[in-house]
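ligand=iron/sulfur cluster
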Amino acid sequence: MPNLFGITRDDLEKYFLSIGEKKYKALQVYEWLYEQRVFNIDEFSNIKKEVRDKLKNDFTTDFIQIEKKQVADLTEKYLFRLHDNEFIEAVVMHHDYGVSICVSSQVGCNMGCRFCESGRLKKVRNLDTYEMVEQILAIEKDLGLKINSVVIMGIGEPLDNYDNIVNFIKIINDAKGLKIGARHITVSTCGLVPKIYDLSHIGIPINLAISFHAPTDELRSKLMPVNKVYSIDALIKAIRDFLQVTSRRVTIEYVMLNNVNDSIDDAKELAHLFKGMNIYVNLIPYNETNHLEFKRSSKNRIKAFYDTLKKEGINVTIRKEFGRNIDAACGQLRGRRSE
Ligand code: SF4
């Protein structure tokens, strides 16, 4: 049975029409769920009982459970238990400008990026739309605050779960849903090229972040198997299309791996690839884990890489770090109960 938190307003309108009701009932349901935060269908008092009964018959309102919460330096990490006893994580970060959340999109991930802790767990399944919406609702309730921006960058490759991601974006962006502006929604992908083209055309100009991490096909294919299927050239064409269609800026994520991808020549090659494009590069100091062989680049190497990109005319930042001591940083989410 579908879950009410996974239904876009358009689809809910179609549902009501299909049962012979007026479509404005969808708006009433959305107001209960997302404005009043009333999740019990019996309490939808402006909807008559027989329609409420029908709704209860056709939809569940089951909720994911908070299994564990860890708190450190302006960060909270949540471990959620799903209905089938799988686990996923979400991370909340408190910035000067608001509160952001990094949500997971799959249980595990099949992309196999070699430096990534999250990808060590093979994909078990896609998250359903409602399981992503509920990560936000559960955390807003627990912390008693409003999330201002959403990054789909937790466990999983979002574009490998495309339909659910698009529905999720529609629900959180809906003015009667979670009201999160398109500028405050970011999808991060390792480079599933055909889906990037599709995402350009959903009519909601969200931000795109690309996990790029290497300036040549040779190195990128070693670090990220996806590159053997979609080369750097194909990826850059898709990024150009996204920029043209959405007029948004694209972020190029680049994790700094000591003596792997962090030389001055690497920086020059990266700059050459993106010259003149409306992108900015986000350099991410690597978070070392016990299981993987990579080391974090030194501060000096990161600074030299940064300076080279700047000199080449590329917009670049070094990511501010959050949550390292609770393994809440990029690429460290696991979704395991024991850790
Ligand atoms: S970096 Fe992202 S796409 Fe790559 S394995 Fe990790 S979670 Fe999957």
